[in-house]
Amino acid sequence: MYAHAVSRTLTDTPGRDDDAADAPRPGLTLVYAGPAGLARAGEQLSLAGRAAVLLGRDEPLFPGGPLGDARMSGRHAVIVRESGNYHLIDRGSKNGTFVRGERVTDHVLAPGDAIRVGSTFLVFSLVPPSPRADAGGDLVGAGATMAEIHRSLDLVAPSEHTVLLLGESGTGKEVAARELHRRSARPGPFLAINCASLRGELLESELFGHARGAFTGAQRAHDGLFLRASEGTVLLDEVAEMDEPVQARLLRVLEARAVRPVGASAEVPVGTRVVAATNRDVEGAVRAGRLRADLYARLARWTVRLPALRERLEDVGVLARAILAREGRPRDLGPELVAALLDARWTLNVRGLVNVLTTAAIAQPGERVLDLVPAVRQALDAQASLAAAPGAAAAEPESERAHDEATVRAALARHAGNVSAAARDLGLTRQSLYRLLERHDLDATAFRDE
Predict the structure, then answer these.
(1) Nearest-angstrom CA–CA distance, 72 and 30
(2) DSSP assignment, residue 239?
(3) Which of 94, 179, 228, 351 sits most deeply, having the most CB atoms within 10 A of its CB?
(4) Is 91 in contact with 77 (CB distance < 8 Å)?
(5) Is 414 exposed, middle or buried (0-12, 13-18, 19+ CB in 10 A)?
(6) Among 122-131, 150-159, 388-397, which is the least confidently predicted range?
(7) What is d(CA 28, CA 10) in angstroms, rounded to the nearest whole number?
(8) Which bin fits 58, alpha (ψ -120 to 50), beta or left (φ > 0)?
(9) Separation of alpha carbons 292 and 299, rounded Å
(10) By three-state DSSP, how is residue 297 classified?
(11) Which helix (H) or strand (E) holds 263?
């Protein structure tokens, strides 16, 4: 199975397979709720089956009750479902309705749209049918994207199968690997190694161990990770960076479930579970000959892709709350800082969010509510400069970079502006295609009469 951010359409047409009881539905996720701040982050409202939803300070739409945001009007805005789309319409509010930082009066919502009404921030995206009872350890997320990741880990955890984790740097691949180990209830330890940091004989020794005298300097025998993590889990991070001879030995270990230390004459049985991770285009690495196809097939018995933070903005609030909780005392964010976080590109993903919030906490040591002070602006500017730097396109999914404006136009024309059909045609998720539409300044509705 290839688990990823859920790519179903954000409509709820009766009779579709998406109407199954356990299917995610279009909805709103609270990122920051007026006077309550981050405390209510993650609360959700499903829009499925609703013709219209009124957004107002006294409306009890979310599980925690009315938002009570003094900057929201009583009838601030309304979301109306029309012809398969969701329209956000301002009702003449005093402080305005904003989407992605721009004031709107009538806006067709797209997946990932960040909405501001008063001092409250919401994200329009798919929401799971019910909240997860288990908080999921350190793998934090409230939206359907992370619900699918949790479901995928639950399915594979009890098995012995190898798992391949894909995702950009900073998306939480090691966090997911540790969570997988926790759910597996394996009695052995969790050990991790970065395969790009060691080469050749040194990497072989670290992975498989070595016998005394196996090479110069090997004055005593050494148990490698596979032996030390017997009955546990080994994470091979940046597995696509392994030298080919090490790849061949790893394949043998996976197939025989036994390891032969460097310089030893006999194999030793091991019961170690292997999780591999990479931020590379793994299929491209196979095609280029950098990663053995047979090893890839063996590692990818179950594949999970960790989404980029920009693909799950609905989780910014719950992530920020979890990061600030590590400070050891109550901390919250001001609305202008939340607005800036939702507008950031996040080339460094969750790791970048940690950096920005850490800067905010250090720069404001005596404040309970952290604001958008100059030091925080500088940290966000540094993130933006990384996104604009040469080579930053590598942070974008390979599938998106393969499609230029002409290709996207042709697919929309073939499918009369149907975004779901065009996305399937191009091998993309709807979220990816919406990003391409924004990048090329295209409007899918313009193709519906062609």
Answers:
(1) 15
(2) G
(3) 179
(4) yes
(5) middle
(6) 388-397
(7) 11
(8) alpha
(9) 11
(10) helix
(11) none
SS3 15: coil
For the record, the structure tokens of 324 come out as 């600030």
Spatial contact of 214 and 262, defined as CB atoms under 8 Å apart: yes
Q: Which residues contact 234 (CB under 8 A, 6 or more apart)?
A: 191, 192, 193, 225, 226, 272, 273, 274, 275
Torsion-angle region of 118 (φ positive above 0: left; ψ -120 to 50: alpha; else: beta): left
Q: How far apart are CA 174 and CA 192, in angstroms?
A: 8
- Answering whether pTM is above 0.70, one says yes
| Tens digit of each residue's pLDDT (9 = 90 or more) over 228-261 | 888 999 999 999 999 898 899 899 999 988 887 7
Tokens of 189: 């330890």
Q: Which amino acid is at 19?
A: D
3-class DSSP assignment, residue 361: helix
Q: What does the DSSP assignment read for 98-149?
A: EETTEEESEEE--TTEEEEETTEEEEEEEE-SS--SS--TT----SHHHHHH
